[in-house]
Recover the amino acids of this structure.
């Protein structure tokens, strides 16, 4: 069973999904990063829960719900992640 990082484990008691996703360490190189990791994970979780089965389905989900996600999360992304 995979180990949960300490920062993420501390968030397990919290009911806030975004706080939990922000606590997961980002292993990507900084060069070329356009979106925060927590946001990509959130879109993936929401898309999968809504029935998305592929990266293209997740892209369509993100495009379809762009305005609502921007408004609900207080973001101002003009473009959305693509497959």
């Amino acid at each position: 069973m995979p180990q949960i990082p300490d920062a993420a484990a501390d968030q397990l008691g919290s009911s806030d999904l975004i706080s939990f996703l922000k606590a997961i360490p980002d292993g990507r190189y900084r060069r070329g990063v356009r979106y925060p990791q927590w946001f990509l994970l959130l879109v993936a979780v929401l898309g999968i829960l809504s029935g998305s089965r592929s990266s293209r389905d997740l892209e369509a989900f993100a495009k379809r719900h762009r305005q609502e996600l921007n408004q609900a999360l207080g973001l101002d992304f003009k473009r959305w992640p693509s497959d």
Notes: The radius of gyration is 14 Å.
